Amino acid sequence: MANYLDKILRHAEGRLIRRPNTKPSDILALYQQFLRMEQHRLRLKHKADASGKEICHGRAQLIDVVLQHIHEGATGFCKEKHKVIKPPRFAVLAVGGYGRGELNPFSDVDVMFLYEQSGKQRHPYIEDVIQQILYMLWDVGFKVGHASRSISESISHANEDNQSKTALIESRCLAGDESLFAEFQLELNKKCVTPYVEAYLKYRILDQRERHAKYGNTVFLQEPNIKQGCGGLRDYQNLCWMTYFKWGIRTTLEMQERGWLTATERKQLEKAYDFLMRVRNELHFRSERANDVINLNIQGRIADAFNYPQKTMLRRIEVFMRDYYTHARNIFVITETLAQRLAFPVEKTGKRYFTFLARMQKKVEHFDGFTLKEGVLFSESPLVFKEDPLRLLKVFLYTQQRQAELSPELKSQIRASLGLVNRAFIYSKGSRETFRAILENKGQVGKILRSMHELDFLGKFMPEFGAITCLVQHEFFHRYTADEHTLQCVEKLDQVIDATETPFSRYSDVFHDLEQPFILYLALLVHDTGRADNSRNHSDVSAKNAMHLARRFHLSPTEKSSLVLLVDHHLTMGDFCRKRDLHDPTVIEEFARIVRDEQILYALHLLSFADSQAVGGLSGLDWKDMLQRQLFDRTRDKLTGAPERSKIDEARIELRERVMKLMRNPGQERIDELDTHFSLLSGRYVYTRSPEDVLRDLALVKTFVQRQIDEENPLFPLCAWQHYPDQGHSMVTVCTWDRQNLFEKISGAMTLAELNILSAAIYTRPDNVVIDIFRVCTTRFESVSDQRDISLMEGTLVRALTDEDFILSARIREMKTKQPLPEPLPERFPQKLIIDNDASSTYTMIEIQTADRLGLLFDVLQVLSELNFNIGLAKIATEKGAALDTLYVVDKSGQKIVDESMLSEIRSRLKQVLTHGEIIEAS
Is the dihedral of CA 40, 45, 47, 50 positive or negative? Predict the structure, then answer.
């Protein structure tokens, strides 16, 4: 960058000519023109593949030159104005990122004005110079962070605020009295650094922990924060701040020279930091502002700008994001390990070592080339793994057995010894037996596998898993890369074993009764490995990987069969819950034929639960959990021979008893009402409603029926609301008489009230009383707290059901013309339209997956109404902005739709409703 600085200086000398007795503001236009030209030059250098650091250093140098000219003009003008011969000592300092000489294209410019204190108030000359510089910087267009302090004020403020202290230790003198700056540096080190080393290290460790938690606690988010997230720029900078306080060194080269980093680790760190800097530069240039989030809609543009050569956009995004995750992971793992060494230094004499979190003194244990001391495992020789490569796997078993941590030095040794994990190691009997032992420990597996992964061991030992390391998942619902999602699945399963809170506690008994945890954990590890193949159905490829893994681990025929079945069907339970009628005996029979065995059912139940919990960002997990447990219970009854009718009756009796307890000494009239209500509703109602729900439903039905007796309008519906502001939704229960197109009219009324339908459940009694329950939210994803919204929805529904002249569809079309066009779909949004006549014995199933929008359900229902179809069952769900709707329909005679011309008509009409993006169709 020296040549670039020379160019800036020559350009500045030619452009920023200051005439005598002129204010800096008098030549404002020259500064603006100069900056536009130089910033354009930086943008061109960036497009020509300049490194991230090069552009950041270049911008810092550019602003140095501008500030120095502004300072020169301000001090010259103020000397004349205030007639001072010997002005007070004064300096302009760059602090923070600017002090490091690293400024991304639209980052703030942070400066501090340092002056010598000579009285209670600043000299008017100082005040004027500061004002002149700041006004000029603002007028030029910079966003400036600034402070004005004496040395003593700076020291005092730094010791009160660690963030300010951090900014000041990176300061450098831009202009003014360098001797004053030198005094400031001496005082800063003497009074702010040396006395506070341990306290500052503790602050940095805790700050990093809180920051990681705030930004997702993982490198592998779908839309990562490149600055603050795990493995982001701040992690690298945090390490440099800690090493400065601890050892007085600022660079990774010095860290390597001290033996704290290997040459490979240093190279990985520097390469990763530069890559992230370059990505951040691109984010700033594209956004024309400071921006730190690599969101979905910009990933493809960055991949194109960086000239990734893959033929399709998805592949370019995949390779770019894999590069990002690889670099961010290197920063995260290396800085975490070194930060741990800084926070927990160990004396080579073997004496007790310092820790911020005081540990109980434990007995020192020596075994197999390792030493366990105070819960931390150390190696006793630099050749510990070369002498016996199997120790690379055994060391993880030792930490699991002893609930120990790997020492930072041992982590570095493991990373440096990964070359020993060759084919002979992978296929050895000792390796597979040790790995199996690790996976047999229920509830203690996730932490060990994550440790293996962070040290790059897991992908080496299991190449199938290595193929999905840092792999972007091209599915709208996944927040994480494939490897991170897998590890989170394992960690969610671990939580089940001793859980006391729902929903995890509901699965504890099942996990305790599971006989082969090794097979389940292995299935979780391999269930998504097929995604690396980029095939349409990753489950098939994952199942093939499971077969290879079964041979490598010498599994028995029964174990192999179980593993492959679990992997092949890891989505099946969720699909059945979301799409199928769980009260259709043929559906339960079909699922029972798939699982075949009670133990496999247990394992698939746990796998499906862990998988859904690990996806992240989903709403309504309690609802899905309820459906899954319902499918599990009914399938277990089928496998064990329990009669279905008796199970429904048992559930009905149990629910009735729980409702009776809530009633508290009910009279015979209320008991009769309860028994009548239960006798008129299906097993689906019994399985899905809580005692509190039943009491509310009873009260609503009683009020509705009473209104009929009182001769009020019998067509008027009755609505009851429950609001859940913390969860961002409301529940509305609609009670009315069943009639043609009722579901359509309710959804239309909600559309006109601008309410999003998140889920729906329909219960129709034989006496034609309907209880429909909807989970809804506003367009701001909040509960429906405004009474005007409630009144609008209820009033619209009344008119739709009672006024023949009220045309609901016309009102909705009128409303839509006044609304802005919907946002375009994300690039990778998956859409589906599936019509299936095999999923149910009595209904035609229509499955829709598309971007949710206001009125979507009404539009779909209107099409079905116009085709004279009746809806027997609806499964409505909205997750992460996607509508996942499954409708079970019959024609007007109550039969499935089998006529090909009519099926074609359904497809054509529904495609017109789903107007955004490409429809993936199956039948």
Answer: negative
Joined together, the tokens standing for residue 590 give: 């079909």
Q: Are 524 and 490 in contact (CB under 8 A)?
A: yes
Strand partners for 145: 110
Query: Residue type at 719?
Result: C
* Exposure letters 43-81 (e unless 16+ CB within 10 A, then b): eeebeeebbbbbbbbbbbbbbbbbbbbbbebbbbbbbee
Q: What is the pTM of this model?
A: 0.69
pLDDT of residue 362: 52
Using CA atoms, how far apart are residues 548 and 426, in angstroms rounded to an integer? 13
Give how far the C-alpha of residue 332 lies from the chain's centroid of Cα atoms, to the nearest Å.
17
Instruction: Report the half-sphere exposure of 295 (CA within 13 A, side-chain side).
Output: 7
Tokens 């033929």 correspond to what residue? 311
Fold exhibited by the domain 825-923: Alpha-Beta Plaits (3.30.70)
Smallest Cα–Cα separation from 74: which of 8, 135, 33? 135
pLDDT of residue 7: 63
Q: Looking at domain 2-198, does it have CATH number 3.30.460.10?
A: yes
Backbone phi and psi for residue 118, each to the nearest 5 degrees, phi listed first: -125, 5
φ, ψ of residue 403 to 5 degrees: the values are 50, 50
Residue bearing tokens 């961002």: 728
Q: Rounded CA gap, 75 and 6, in Å? A: 24
Enter the tokens of residue 687.
């399985």
312-338 b/e (C-beta count within 10 Å ≥ 16 → b): ebbebbbbbbebbbbbbbbbbbbbbbb
Extents of the domains making up the chain: 2-198, 215-343, 825-923
In CATH terms, the fold of domain 215-343 is Four Helix Bundle (Hemerythrin (Met), subunit A) (1.20.120)
195: left (phi over 0), alpha (psi -120 to 50) or beta: alpha
How far, in Å, CA of 784 to CA of 787, rounded? 8
Spans of the chain, pLDDT less than 70:
1-26, 119, 343-362, 473-479, 535, 616-623, 642-648, 683, 711-712, 726-728, 818-830, 878-881, 915-923
Contact criterion met (CB below 8 Å) for 688 and 630:
yes
Nearest CA to 771 out of 784, 782, 757, 760 is that of 760
